[in-house]
Amino acid sequence: MKSLHITASALAIAALSAGAASARDQIQITGSSTVLPYATIVAEAFGENFDFPTPVVEGGGSGAGRKKMCEGVGENTVDIANSSSRISQSDIDLCTQNGVAEVMEVRIGYDGIVFASDVNGQEFAFTPADIYTALGKQVLKDGALVDNPNTSWDQVNAAFQPQDILVFVPGTKHGTREVFDTKVIIAGCEATGAMAAFAAANNGDEDKAEELCMDLRTDGRSVDIDGDYTETLARVDADKNGIGVFGLSFYQNNTDKLRVATMGGVVPSVDSIAKGEYPVSRPLYFYVKKAHLGVIPGLKEYVEFFVSDDMAGPDGPLAAYGLVSDPELAATQAAVAAETPMGPLN
Amino acid sequence: MTDIPATPVNPTRPVKSIYSGGAEMRRRNAAEARFRFYGLFAITLSLGVLAIMLWTIFSDGVSAFKQAKLTFPVTLAPEVLDPAGNRDRAEMTKVTTIGYGRVLAGAFRAELEARQISTEGVSDKEIAELISKDAPGVLRAEVLADTALVGTTQVMTVLASGRIDGYLKGRVTRATAERDAQISPAMLDLADRLQDAGILKTGFNLGFLTSPDASDQRPEAAGLGVAIIGSAYMMLLVIVICVPVGVAASIYLEEFAPKNRLTDIIEVNISNLAAVPSIVFGILGLAVFINFAKFPQSSPVVGALVLSLMTLPTIIIASRAAIRAVPPSIRDAALGVGASKMQTVFHHVLPLAAPGILTGTILGLASALGETAPLLLIGMVAFVDNYPAPPVEGFFDPATALPVQVYSWASRSDPAFIERSSGAIIVLLVFLVIMNVTAIILRRKFERRW
Predict the structure, then answer these.
(1) Is the pLDDT of residue B177 over 60?
(2) Whole-angstrom Cα distance, residue B229 to residue B304?
(3) How many helices (H) and strands (E) does chain B have?
(4) What is the mean pLDDT of residues B363-374?
(5) Is B126 an 8 Å CB contact of chain A?
(6) pLDDT of residue B387
(7) Residue B332 domain flag
(8) Which residues of A touch B297 (CB under 8 A)?
(9) In this structure, is residue B60 part of a structural domain?
């Protein structure tokens, strides 16, 4: 009985202090697992150098993060959503509907997507057309669309050594997949002429043709990875024929296990992406709930610190980790300082 | 009454010794031998799998408890750290970790020069990269805590970078260093010379148990401090919530509740709840505790409430079994000498059932300690760098948990986190073993058999 009393009173105290503790003093960030390592690097440095507590950073995916941000305004909602793809109109509508009127869009830099295989395997020099010919559900063969017959890389391109085709591509819930689809698959589809053939087969409907292009083969040679890059690495490690799709920063941390493939003759690096030579890259963003600026302590300082030259600049720690610094960083810094909310999507 | 006729034993059936045995006997014996073999095989298989699992975890993880550290004197130059020269903390905070990083790197280079250690083939920038990126932050916090340190020379022990640590542990070799942008074979040669000079040493890594998490760029600084505190807070709250509720529910159901349709339904539901996947409780926790009750995200209190929901059915089932195992004669005797039903339960039944209840509770807690899935949804799978405050307000501060830390380290890109992840599993296993052993000891000590 005594213990019952004690626990009851402990619970009562806990419930009472809930009110006192509700004023949140640390920033809450959620979203893309690609942006997560960059955000933790900044959060850690922010905690070290400012008298504010270190922000709490969660992963979970770009789409899920933006939805969480658009849940509403208030201390039990997140302040910032990291995103590896641009916010969509449906997210903006959801935000407006839930009273999140103004959102600041901050572009932090660019991220490259690389193809890499086991370090002891052959060297690949891909073009988007090679990837499409290897992975598309239907490819052009002798002028006709046929179900993909290729089983070995030398059938795709005579320059390659014979090796079973096996590619680990990011699953559809990843922001990375979008870039993979648009910059590699669709580009390859166009280059091989399959796009035109699809359009011709559908009375010139180009949207339909694009959709058909993005259909990947389902006979087990293209494997969707829904986990993160560590899973892709483990799969490549287990099957030496496998080729994985990774983020540039992940590859840079694992150069002892992976051999990177060139794309269109360009070796992926922070440099070649910054110059715009390497084709498969994408901007990374985070979205700030404007209503929380000035309410959550340190939020403005964090955002400014993130885009400062010390962090996101070409010599900063983010670039060292693999982020390609944004050449228009100064404009972003000015927009952040002025707290400019984002306009409608164009 | 007729006598049973004295029929002789069937003379046609041969008399057999059970030792020599016939065909049927051999068949039965063979069946038994086969069964024994299957049993032995099953046990060997599971022990083998367990051994492989433990071996992988320990071979990967034990090195997390050792850490390479650099020791060298650092002169805290006032012109860099306190440009205004008045030792005013507020003004000194303007010097960021970048400034402190330069001070550390400069001191390190000076020490190499003073000790005449050759730095051939290694640039100044690379020399600075031997020091962990965590070190400037530590130094800055120390200086700001005691501004009198400025101008003095302190012998500092700071972490070496993750790659150097990996080299001393055999993870990084000269072959991998050649392909690695973050380290070069020349830097490894320098590390060898530093080791000979006694500047670079490997020691026990207390920081692994006490430090908070660190970002991807400094795996060497990542520790379990926040996760251990978070797990401890949650377990404490789970006990506080589950034990009274679970014991009260099982006493009522066993001793007081009428046996009818309603209690049957409740009983079936409790058993079903015990089998509900834990992620479902996470979804419930997000909807009820965070979105409706407005509890803060990522806080141990929400985690504990969710885990309590998950653990309660286990505790109720175990407690009911323990209460049911107390013989009715005890109750009859108590009632017989005039005790009320309440007195019977609390003076006799409950003390006798206590060891069973305790064991069930500890086993329930152990499963709650290892749970990640529900915490994913309530924001506890996160990067949390600040320790939660002491109780009670600390229950509402963001924290992570041990299994969560295993999960988030396993998905980091730097290979050094694999070692940390396995190290965290070892810590988690140690806690689980302690809990299970406590359960066994308590049961042995207090259990009574009738």
Answers:
(1) yes
(2) 13
(3) 20, 4
(4) 91
(5) no
(6) 92
(7) yes
(8) 28, 56, 76, 78
(9) no
Nearest Cβ partner for A26 among B218, B386, B411 = B386
How far apart CA A270 and CA B170 sit, in angstroms, is 29
Measured between beta carbons, the chain A residues lying within 8 angstroms of B91 are: none
One domain, residues B174 and B274: no
pLDDT number for residue B209: 94
Rounded Cα distance, A342 and A289, in Å: 11
pLDDT the model gives residue A1: 44
Are B296 and A75 an interchain contact pair (Cβ–Cβ within 8 Å)?
yes
The shortest CB-CB distance from A58 to any of B93, B216, B382 is to: B382
A214 and A172, same structural domain?
A: yes
Confidence of residue A24 (pLDDT cuts 50, 70, 90): confident
Q: Do the domain assignments include residue A288?
A: yes
Q: What is the pLDDT of residue A20?
A: 42
**ipTM entry:** 0.85
Residues A34 and A179 placed together within one structural domain of the fold: no
Stretch A62-70: mean pLDDT, rounded?
88
* Residue pairs between chains A and B whose CB atoms are closer than 8 Å: 144
CATH number of the structural domain spanning residue B399: 1.10.3720.10
Residue A200: pLDDT band with limits 50, 70, 90: confident
B343 has pLDDT over 90: yes
Average pLDDT (B416-422) is: 92
Distances (CA, A) of A38 to A87, A108, A286, B96, B329: 19, 10, 11, 19, 67
In chain A, which residues have their Cβ closer than 8 Å to the Cβ of B291? Answer: 71, 76
Reported as a single tens digit per residue, the pLDDT across B269-295 is: 999 998 899 899 999 998 999 888 888
Who among B385, B393, B413 is closest to A54 (CB)?
B385
Among candidates B141, B291, B413 on the partner chain, residue whose Cβ is nearest the Cβ of A250: B413
- pLDDT of A254 over the 90 cut: no
Q: Do B294 and A249 touch (CB under 8 A)?
A: no
Cβ burial, residue B446 (10 Å; 0-12/13-18/19+): middle
Is some CB atom of chain A closer than 8 A to the CB atom of B56?
Answer: no
Distance, in Å, from the CA atom of A30 to the CA atom of B319, rounded to the nearest integer, reads 40
CA distance A76 to chain B (A): 6
Q: Please give the pLDDT value at position B57.
A: 93
- Residue B340 CA from chain centroid, whole number: 45
Question: What DSSP letter does each residue of B416-433 carry, written as one string?
Answer: HHHHHHHHHHHHHHHHHH
Say whether A14 and B392 touch across the interface (CB within 8 A). Answer: yes
Closest Cβ opposite residue B140 in set A48, A58, A254 = A48
Contact A230 B241 (CB under 8 A): no
Whole-number pLDDT of residue B222 = 93
Which residues of chain A have a CB within 8 Å of the CB of B381?
58-60
Domain range enclosing A245 = 112-281
Residues A122 and A105 in one domain: no
How far apart CA A73 and CA A75 sit, in angstroms, is: 7
**What pTM does this model have?**
0.85
Within this chain, do residues A96 and A161 fall inside the same structural domain, yes or no? no
Q: Is A287 exposed, middle or buried (0-12, 13-18, 19+ CB in 10 A)?
A: buried
